[in-house]
Sequence to fold (253 residues):
Amino acid sequence: MNFKGVIFDLDGTVYRGKEAIPGAADFIHHLRDRAIPIRFVTNRANRPAGDVCQQLTGMGLDCTPADVLTSADATAAYLKPGRVYAIGESGLIEALDRHGFIRDDQSPDYVIVSFDREFNFKKLSTAVRLISNGAQFVATNPDRALRLEHGISPGTGSLVAAVQAATGVAPLIIGKPERRIFDMVLKDMNLAGSDVIAIGDNLDTDIPAGQVVGMRTVLILTGISTRADLARAPVPPTWVVETYAELEGILLV
Ligand SMILES: [Mg+2]
Fold:
């Protein structure tokens, strides 16, 4: 198969819980051996790229921080630096600091909403007031829920929905399924969408984001979406595989 780059989703695609997906490490090695650049692109915004990379390395997955793009980094890189009220964890705060944003809870240019396990009524009220006063409402990602080892957890999208319900304003969304994060990664790789394969486990985010920028897409059935979900998928993937061994048979022959 002819391609020049590969983009992986993380959760459910290269790891699940604390374990690497079987075959992911070998597949990544085979791509590296062929000098095919790869990136890990995740909607999860709470941890900096370095922490994500350390986790991947700990699971035996070959990674450098420059290979990782989180929706927090993408948001900070996408917006023109300015004053910001941010709801989020260290991944977002560090990214905003690095890009020269100034925190302001009085009259910011932006209100950015992201995953925040210390979200509360006060933060919600502040966000609602500032957006009503004219700050631009931005969401790192739209994921409504996360599947964790112990069950389902609210995701960024649930917090975004609270702000949206109170203000009546829809956010600018940076993460998948919007194209902005994939446009950024293509620019960084200096490749066209048609040269890149996007691999993900989520029919609602990974596959539409890849398709809209012209990538060929792989749904790997190691995470959230199932074969039965294909019937109601907004966009069909180019390939559906159950394992990395099967994917090697398609891409690396
Ligand atoms: Mg995933």
Residues 9, 11-13, 200-202, 223 surround magnesium ion (CB under 6 Å). Residues 5-43+176-251 form a domain with the Rossmann fold fold (CATH 3.40.50.1000). The chain has two domains: 5-43+176-251, 79-173.
